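Page 47, continued from p. 46.
Same chain as before, 285 aa.
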Amino acid sequence: MEKEDVGILVCDNQIKIDFDSLDNGEIEEPLITSTLIKAVNNDWIKEEVLFVVVKAYHDDVIKDMPNLEICGKKMIDWVYNVGSGCERKIIDDSQDIIGKVRSISTDKQIIAVFYSDTPLLDKVTFNKFCDYFSSRNMNFLKLSRGFLVKTEFLKNNYAIAQGASELDDKNLIVCDSSKVIGNICNLLYNKILNYHIKNGVIIYGQNTVFIDADVEIESGVIIYPNNIIKGQSIIEENVVLGSGNVIINSIISNGDKMSMCYIENSKISAGKTLEPFSKFIGQEY
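Result:
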């Protein structure tokens, strides 16, 4: 078969998986849960909060830590996407983070600052911090990795961090070693698998199946052990992925069946049964 260019309609961050409602048994509930005054909804956060991500570097682990990919996303993007819906800014790490944040021009009433090396941060945790801060009418809340501050208070005070109470949270664990990066990668993969299982995907041998964060899988798909699905792939309903497939940035259409295949930047039409060890790169079949 001759190779041809395939126009696959995918784009950056095509799928924004909502992990927020998932129960990941390996991550403990935040310490603030028992004292949180629960808000009716969190719509106010989008209107009142500036979400700031600080690019954090750990040269002893990897020089370009913010751009290190974990489960198909850059580490900084895991954090940055938590603030979707809010006004967002990215700043570089420095010795004077407070000063850098103070210099940001914004009309938002609250500034929430997090670091790019905390990819386990999710929207549920972010919302809880905001609710905690707002319900107590606080001026400054120090987190184990970041802080929340009222904008007006920040502009008019210079020793704001001294003596501030600190909240810790398991989702603010810092990626500062190869061991931690590996552990966090496993936790995120488990979250991704749980998301798809909840949506009706059957996955056998879950500890051998790796699915990137931007992969879309429709209900009714069956995935057997030793499958790797990367990039912005789309797996349509009733597909059966037998063992040993590698699928990268490709579309697998309704009812397709395959085992031990390698498919990259390609589209497999509906109802196909591929021969084992088939290979498609940049093709439509």
